[in-house]
Design a protein that fits this description.
heterodimer, A: 507 residues, 7-stranded antiparallel beta sheet, 16 helices, B: 193 residues, alpha+beta, 3-stranded antiparallel beta sheet, 21% strand, disordered N terminus
């Protein structure tokens, strides 16, 4: 048993700096209102000193300690609050180094307990030395696994935890963790990044940030208000400049998006370490996420429309009790689809490629939904154009164009629809602009929900949603035939539906 | 394993080669209706909310009419008093029909250690929640439910899509059901999820 430990004193540096952005505005405000008088500087200095003192108090009053089979995070100021995290509840440990932390050689350790996705329940140690982070991670994961194995009466699960990687179940814990690199994404594949559409709005965000900063610092530098107004008027008089800037920003979208993507997904590495899948990535902030394999229940394969055209895809693991699964569950960034299927197949399980199509009436519904709203907008705008001003023709034509584009979109959405069950895992797929296919183990299903709107009733289809205690919580097959949908649920979990079926589905 | 899996998928797709031909949803209705008093509950809720809407539209109309909002076209201003009438026409009949319709749809059943519940009125929903996956069972009573002696049973699993809420049960029935579910869930607890 270790004594209670404190965070690294270096957090005294990182904490106030972290607070700077939120302090900046009030400080600037105090300075301006006070007209840079000595008094206002005093108050501003007091604010800074206060934040430093706050950091010192927080550091001095916070300790953590592994006691037996639990981790205790204690904050003792006036009152004492102890958060206890049973080690057997630890589902993953996530170590990251933001740039400032990296500079100082410290790290942020996040402990994932999977407590219903409530952030409050998770533990975070912001500012332990890198060595301590590694030590603690090893301790936490070892305990978690040992606890899990002890509790598991089912020997298969134990074998599954350690079996396939040539590791003895009784491997001594002191051994260096055996690890195997599943896949390192080659750097040239970073070029696929912009296809995913991620970070594409970066140039606009940067421009907005720059304008905001210019206003803040403009005041600071005592740039005359009249100058700003003058500049605004000048731009208003030369719309070409504005247009050029806009075009430039649009052109910068793939470049800036690609750079951001590369920064976040640099050297994406997927490893198998004992019972964990470890995904590591990032250039400035190197982020590593450990997913307990025992809790992985399937995966989700996502392809945007541009990605499909290029034949690439992204993958997420579906893990029970993983909070913020959208960023933390990522298994693969954008890579060629064949490779994605290979890696996911090795890490989790093979994909199900043969999906059952949904009834043709679903195609009609997809088309209607993709075309009709825009058609309605076009009609209204057209009517407005005839009644009031020809300016309304612009939105009318735009909406009409979108309605026309809705035809291929609707057809493609229908083509995407599908569901399947292979005896142990079910799969559903939907979407066109963002097509996603989920493959989920049958044992992860915690319930079913069938829904039917009046329009669906008319078309004799319904939506079948498998409730899953992992990932997004529910995976839906849209517009399945009425009998087909019920048969699907009954096929996956026969015992649950059998008492309620009207007639057995004909074999 | 994958061979077997594909075989299975193929067989299954052959079985449902002609999808959607099975007619209506091939599920029987759950055995138990909700309490008759649930109609009163839904009626109260529906009438209350439509009254709020009608009152709101009435006030809005009076405001618009009184201040003659200039940016509204003339025909809209001239006929502004149709607004509360239309809102009444749209909400009140729905509020009166909904409870009876719901009473016909809302049913529930516990058998084979699965909770089967049907709900909705214009849209329908069938929920299947196996007792072995239940995490919590809540029995809740709003003030009007208390007046009527009704209760709501909320059955939660690890997923919102696998959870279910049964409204409008007699208090005694709800208490027995919640008790039974909690007891069985304890016995059957399955940690796979």
């Amino acid at each position: 048993m270790s004594p209670p430990l404190r965070l690294s004193p270096k957090v005294l540096l990182t904490e106030p700096i972290k607070m700077l952005p939120s302090l900046f505005l009030p400080l600037a405000g105090v300075l301006f209102v006070g007209g840079f008088s000595p008094g206002s500087f005093f108050w501003a200095a007091l604010g800074v000193a206060g934040s430093v003192a706050y950091a010192v108090v927080r550091w001095a009053t916070f300790t953590y300690q592994v006691v037996g089979d639990r981790l205790e995070l204690t904050r003792a100021l006036v009152s004492r609050s102890v958060r206890t995290i049973p080690l057997e509840r630890v589902r993953g440990v996530d170590v990251s180094n933001p740039p400032l932390h990296r500079l100082l050689g410290i790290a942020v350790l996040k402990i994932d307990t999977g407590a219903g996705g409530e952030d409050k329940q998770e533990g975070e140690l912001d500012g332990v030395t890198v060595a301590e982070a590694e030590r603690l991670k090893a301790v936490l994961l070892r305990h978690a696994r040992a606890g899990a194995a002890r509790r598991t009466a089912n020997p298969e699960t134990v074998a599954e935890t350690a079996g396939p990687y040539g590791q003895e179940v009784s491997a001594p814990v002191r051994h260096a963790p055996a690890e195997r690199v599943l896949f390192v994404v080659p750097r040239r594949w970073l070029a696929y990044g912009p296809l995913s559409g991620a970070y594409l709005l970066t140039p606009f965000a940067l421009a907005a940030g720059a304008v905001g900063l210019a206003f803040q610092w403009g005041n600071e530098l005592r740039i005359d208000g009249r100058f700003v107004v003058g500049a605004g008027e000048w731009i208003w008089d030369h719309p070409v400049v504005l247009l050029a800037a806009l075009v430039l920003l649009v052109l910068a979208m793939p470049v800036a998006g690609g750079v951001m993507y590369a920064v976040f997904n640099w050297d994406f590495t997927l490893r198998v370490r004992e019972g964990y899948l470890v995904a590591e990535r990032g250039l400035l902030t190197r982020r590593s996420v450990s997913l307990e394999r025992r809790r992985v229940r399937g995966f989700e394969l996502v392809e945007g429309i541009a990605e499909r055209w290029a034949g690439v895809a992204r993958a997420w693991a579906v893990v029970t009790g993983l909070g913020d699964s959208q960023t933390r569950g990522q298994l693969l960034p954008v890579v060629p689809k064949a490779k994605a299927l290979d890696v996911v197949g090795e890490a989790i399980g093979p994909a199900i490629s043969r999906l059952r199509p949904h009834p043709p009436v679903a195609r009609r519904r997809r088309l209607f939904r993709a075309v009709f709203p825009w058609l309605l907008v076009a009609l209204c705008a057209g009517a407005a154009a005839l009644a009031w001003s020809p300016l309304w023709w612009v939105p009318a034509v735009a909406a009409l164009l979108l309605a026309v584009l809705g035809v291929p979109l609707g057809l493609d959405r229908y083509r995407s629809l599908g569901h399947a069950y292979d005896g142990t895992r079910l799969s559903v797929r939907s979407g066109s602009l963002r097509r996603s296919q989920a493959v989920i183990e049958e044992r992860a299903v915690v319930g079913w929900k069938l829904t039917q709107t009046p329009f669906q009733r008319q078309a004799r289809v319904l939506t079948v949603t498998a409730g899953v205690g992992a990932g997004s919580g529910g995976y839906s097959a849209f517009d399945v035939g009425e009998a087909q949908g019920v048969a699907f649920a009954a096929e996956v979990t026969p015992a649950w539906l059998a008492p309620f079926l009207l007639n057995e589905p004909q074999e | 394993m994958s061979d077997h899996a594909e075989e299975h998928a193929e067989r299954a797709s052959a079985a449902t080669a002609v999808p959607g031909t099975g007619g209506r949803v091939p599920l029987r209705a759950p055995a138990n209706p909700v309490s008759r008093k649930a109609v009163a509950l839904w009626l109260f809720e529906g009438v209350f909310w439509s009254a709020v809407l009608i009152g709101g539209s009435f006030l809005l109309t009076r405001w618009i009419d009184g201040d003659r909002w200039s940016w509204l076209p003339g025909w809209a201003l001239g006929n502004i008093w149709w607004l509360p009438a239309l809102v009444t026409l749209a909400t009140l009949p729905a509020a009166i029909v909904e409870p009876f319709w719901r009473y016909a749809v809302h049913r529930w059943e516990l058998s084979g250690d699965v909770v089967y519940a049907r709900s909705g009125w214009i849209s329908r929903e069938w929920a299947f929640v196996p007792v072995s996956r239940i995490q919590t069972v809540d029995k809740a009573q709003g003030w009007f439910e208390r007046v009527l002696g009704l209760a709501t049973v909320e059955i939660r699993t690890a997923s919102h899509a696998g959870s279910s809420t049964i409204k409008g049960l007699d208090y005694g029935v709800a208490a027995t059901l919640a008790e039974e579910l909690a007891r069985r869930a304890e016995e059957l607890r399955d940690d796979a999820t």
